[in-house]
Every structure is written in C-alpha cells, then in structure tokens.
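Journal club side-thread
Mid-discussion, someone asked how the predicted structure for our own chain would compare to the paper's figures. Pasting it here so we can look after the session.
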Amino acid sequence: MSTLNETPNAARLQIAIFGRRNAGKSSLINALTNQTVALVFDKPGTTTDPVMKAMELLPLGPVNLIDTAGLDDEGPLGELRVERSYQMMNRTDLAILVIDGTVGVTDFELQLLGKIRFGKSRWSG
C-alpha cells in the first residue's frame, strides 16, 4: 500500500476551486486543509497562480486541492491569471464554484456554472 506522498499527481482526484476575485476561494482551501496554503488578503487579485495542496480526503483518497485566481480578473496581467485558471479547469475532475455572499448569484456565475457542467473538452476563457 502506498503512502499519500508516494501517490503520483496523475492518480489523484483533482479538485479545483473557481469563482470571482475575493469570493473566498483561498479561505476555503485554507479551511479544508486546516493550514495556511493560500494567501488571503482583502485586495482582489492576491492569487496569481494556481496553488495546489496534496492531501487525503476520505472517502475519496488522495486528492489535489487547487486554488485558482478569480475568473473576473481584469487587465493584461488579469487576463493571464484567468487563462491559467481555465487551464486548471481542463485538468479538474471536481470543480467547486465559490459564490461571493455579498454579490450573490449573477449572470457571471451562471455562465461559469454552464462551462463547468458542459465538460472539459469545451472549457476555455
């Protein structure tokens, strides 16, 4: 039987967290892991690159939890962050959509949910 650290990334369930900037994605991954895996700050755009944490999640087994940049990011650098987040979506087995409680569900979240439901081969920015 292999240990958690011996499990290759390809054999792990990829669970990624998506949503707007400052919706609580990084706070969620920190809460799920009970560690400070991702930086949390009140300024939008803190997460620039996907942050991954390997862990054991029962009853699923070995997983990679992935925090992504906000999919509503703006500007030239923001476009690169969004592109990286969509690249992670293509590698995701299970997507978690975090909704900002101060904004609620908008057309943006509904469109994003449609992309998540549509399937990996169709995901793009």
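Post-session note: Helices lie at 25-33, 75-90, 107-118.
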